[in-house]
Amino acid sequence: MRGFLGRAGLAAVLLLAPLAPVAPAAAVGKEAGAEAAAASVTAAEAAADWTPPLSTRGRWIVDANGNRFKLRSGNWHGASGTWNGSGSTEDDANHHAGENSGRVPLGLDRAPMAEIVSGFQEIGINSIRLPFSNEMIHDDRPVTDRAVAANPWLRGRTPLQVYDAVVRALTDAGLAVILNNHTNTTRWCCGVDGNERWNASRSTGAWENDWLFMARRYQDNKRVVGADLYNEVRRSVWDDPNWGLGDDHDWFAASQHVADRILTEADPDLLIIVEGINWTGIPVDGFAHGRPTLEPVRRLSHTLVDSGKLVYSAHFYDYTGPNHSGATGLGETSDPRYRDLGPAELTDVVNRQALYVAAEQDQHFTAPVWISEFGVGGREETGAAPRAWFENFVDNLIRADADFAYWPLVGWHENRKGNGWALLHWDSAGHRMGVYDGDDWRAGAWTRLVRAQGRTGPVAPVADWSMLSPDHGDFVASRRMRALPDWNPGARKAVCPDGQRLLGLSHTGSRGLCADVSTGPLGNPAGAHEVVVDERHVAPGQDWASGYTKLQCADGQFLTGYSVRGAAVSAVLCTAAPAGALGTSGRTVWFDRSDNRGASPQGGDFAHGHYKGQCANDEYLAGIAYTGRLGSSRTPDALYCRKLG
Q1: Contact indicator for 582, 592 with CB cutoff of 8 Å
Q2: Cβ distance 537 to 551 under 8 Å?
Q3: Alpha helix segments (H runs only) across 282-436
Q4: pLDDT digit string (tens) for 20-39?
Q5: What is the DSSP code string of 133-202?
Q6: Is 324 helix (H, G, I), strand (E, B) or coil?
Q7: Of 186, 187, 286, 287, which is closest to residue 235 (Cα–Cα)?
Q8: pLDDT exceeds cutoff 90 at 627
Q9: If you average pLDDT over every residue of the chain, what do you get?
Q10: 490: Cβ contacts below 8 Å, ≥ 6 apart
Q11: Closest Cα partner for 316 from 374, 273, 257?
Q12: CA angle 520-478-62, nearest 5°?
């Protein structure tokens, strides 16, 4: 949620400007009613017209029939906590914006659950990001009667049991649900609050076990479609998170590991959503600081055991910025906020930080991008800059045909006054105030967003490109090889996902590139493989790298993995192909002194700063050559690329 230091003090820094002229109430109400009706029809059609589970094809999310499913989502917060962290949890004043969720999704004290869910559909929502805390899972204290006053049938239940009921109501209505691990402890996010990382207030092992528990709990409900692994990973008082350093703060490694565990040990149907890093550095002018978001993905991307399950996500709010924490006063810097950027500059920044992942095709990082949080104040937001930012940001979402989730959907109001950020508010008497009531300036932009004409219908399968990064340990993306004994004990092993073949390697750095381009999934159903540690398959008279040690697959096999000890090549993993799938004519690709990847290589820069060799799209990798001469580290120097059959 909402930037490095949250929304504390936000009101003090809004840029105030006169409201734009308002049309007569009757006209506004009529127009808003028409917008609401159109959005409601859109949502109803969407809810009835998709088949779970969901997966991905390139940059698109698709349903079980291969039809595009655009996440037009909203966040229904509360179960992860609204308490600000000091004072009694029973006092509303100690909760964000005075809204006390009572450890359950907000609003259950004010409106029947069915009414809230129906409200989501009325405004064009087809999916819900449903935050929870790790504490919520283990909290066996019944919720208070007050917290569920409008839903008395929930009295006496624990927060998790109420969460169960909410999931069931949403999915019974046809909505997709994405489980979101928002915080470790049940409290408002996101500052320096003990919830900065997945393991800030609990161990990584306990966090992983909680995810397995949640994934298994909803495994039979196929409209529970995704696992959003952790919210807004950011700096603690003393330490930054990182992307790929291999330590206890490595968000790339932690998310990769738990994702594979969820898919292999709990529910293979779930989408895995990985948010970029929300903040690093000290927010003081003169010190390094910034919001990396998804920029590190360009150089180091996830490869899951199941291709077609990865979605990346990012958050954007007007008061934060590429290098601005969102704070006012303590933690505030002179860096521009997103609302300070003009339309063209905002587009460039959002593309650089997030949307490029979906826009650039046939890269190792290509995946759908879900903007899983964005939002702005409502009726009482008179600032010209936040209003302009919201309009411009919506334009960017429409232009990119991006998946999105508004924050938040539900809020409180009294006499039409309150927090204002939500799209739907209820007062203590159960009266609803909505974005389409005729007096909310966001209605036009919201309608443009939910009714935007984007891609629909069937999405053809695309080639998968995958990075292997055994930087700090094994990187085995093959379900089949994970189930078998260690094929090279003591070495770091890297294996392509089942059905893909190894196409590229780096000279140093031990990185690899896999793909199923030109062939689709390739492999022998019998699953035969061979570990090669010598030149047994180099035929007499066919020395393709004279003077170098060659690890080569037999005819009819292709390379799917490799192992290293330190920097040195240790072995290659060869997998049998169906009869006739592989040719035997080959060429040597040297890359020990420069890149050698062809004129227009696909797959992206899978080993930034290192020389790379790559076979062509109509080839397969059949061998690796290295030298053991004095001064060499026995790293790959040449590839043996053979034509496909």
Answers
A1: no
A2: no
A3: 343-350, 356-359, 384-400
A4: 322 333 333 445 555 555 55
A5: EHHHHH--SPPPTGGGTT-GGGTT--HHHHHHHHHHHHHHTT-EEEEEEEESSSS--SSSSS-SSTTSSS
A6: strand
A7: 287
A8: yes
A9: 92
A10: 565
A11: 374
A12: 50
Phi, psi dihedral angles at 421 (to 5 degrees): -70, -30
Q: How far apart are CA 353 and CA 450, in angstroms?
A: 23
- pLDDT class of 49 with cuts at 50, 70, 90: confident
C-alpha distances in Å from residue 104, one per residue of 92, 120, 228, 426? 14, 17, 18, 16
Question: Are the C-beta atoms of 513 and 466 separated by less than 8 Å?
Answer: yes
pLDDT band at 42 (very low <50, low <70, confident <90, very high): low
pLDDT tens digits along 528-576: 899 999 999 999 999 999 999 999 999 999 999 999 999 999 999 999 9
State the Cα–Cα distance between residues 515 and 505, nearest whole angstrom. 12
Identify whether the C-beta of residue 311 lies closer than 8 Å to the C-beta of residue 368.
yes
H-helix or E-strand containing 264?
helix 251-265
What's the full length of the chain, in residues?
645
- Residues contacting residue 534 through CB under 8 Å, at least 6 positions apart: 551
Query: What global pTM score does this model have?
Result: 0.94
Q: How many CB atoms lie within 10 A of CB 83?
A: 20
Q: What is the pLDDT of residues 294-313, one digit of tens each?
A: 999 999 999 999 999 999 99
d(C-alpha 633, C-alpha 340), whole Å:
50
Instruction: Kindly state the tokens that stand for 95.
Output: 């909760």
Q: How far apart are CA 445 and CA 537, in angstroms?
A: 64
Residue 122 or 628, more confident: 122
Secondary structure class of 37 (helix, strand, coil): helix
Q: And the tokens for 329? A: 């006063």
Nearest in space to 224 (alpha carbons), one of 212, 216, 236, 232? 216
List Cβ neighbours of 348 (8 Å cut-off, separation of 6 or more).
none
Q: Strand pairing of 612-614 and 501-506?
A: antiparallel
Q: Which amino acid is at 179?
A: L
pLDDT digits (tens, 9 = 90+) for 112-159: 999 999 999 999 999 999 999 999 999 999 999 999 999 999 999 999
Burial class for 536, CB neighbours closer than 10 Å (0-12, 13-18, 19+): exposed
Residue 314: left if φ>0, alpha if ψ -120 to 50, beta else—which one? beta
Instruction: Tell how strand 568-576 and strand 557-565 pair up.
Output: antiparallel
Bridge partners (DSSP) of residue 568 are: 565
Q: Please name the amino acid found at residue 231.
A: N
Contacts of 212 (CB under 8 A, 6+ apart): 261, 262, 265, 266
User: Token pair of 321, please?
Assistant: 């910025």
**CA dihedral sign, ordered 62, 63, 65, 67:** negative
Residue with more model confidence, 366 or 329: 366
Is residue 3 over pLDDT 90? no
Tens digit of each residue's pLDDT (9 = 90 or more) over 455-488: 999 999 999 999 999 999 999 999 999 999 999 9
Query: Cα–Cα distances in Å, from 316 out to 72, 87, 180, 326, 525?
Result: 16, 30, 17, 11, 45
Q: Which token pair is 515?
A: 């793909």
**Three-class SS of residue 342?**
coil
Question: Which are the contacts of 203, defined by CB distance < 8 A and separation ≥ 6?
Answer: none
